Amino acid sequence: QVHPGVLKLSYYNEYKSYLSSPMDRYNFQSQLEHLQSKYIGTGHSDTTKFEWLVNQHRDSFASYIGHYGLMDYFALVENESKARVTFNLLEKMLQPCGPPPEKPDWM
């Protein structure tokens, strides 16, 4: 049996070999920037902890709404109708982590 750390190291070496030349690194960085500009949830270098948490919560709520089996389960557990549970989740998506924190003056 292979130790899990050895397996991770082999993945790292394989990943490192893909980015062997500076041009490969540039292409990888430009693809990453393209994804970050296209999809909000992927974040970027200036993403705050609050923004990241809001994205995580919204993605989770959207996934719950999209999986009808989960909605059935939530409705059963909360003793509410499926429409009410969906409405509550949609309401929570507005400010899932509360109001945003105030930014310091230097930002």
Parts with pLDDT < 50 across at least 5 consecutive residues: 5-9
Quote the average pLDDT: 79
Query: What distance lies between the first and last C-alpha atoms, to the nearest angstrom?
Result: 52 Å
Helix content: 55-70%
Cα-based radius of gyration, to the nearest Å: 21 Å
Beta-strand residue fraction? under 5%
Count of distinct strands:
0
Secondary structural class: mainly alpha
Write down the secondary-structure element order: HHHHH
Number of alpha- plus pi-helical segments: 5
How would you sum up the global shape? flat
Q: Describe the largest sheet.
A: none
Describe the structure.
The chain has 5 helices and no strands. 1% of the residues are buried. Helix 3 (49-66) packs antiparallel against helix 5 and helix 4 packs across helix 5 (82-92). The chain starts with a helix and ends in a 15-residue tail after the last helix. By secondary structure, the protein is mostly helical.
Brief descriptors of the model:
107 residues, mainly alpha, 5 helices
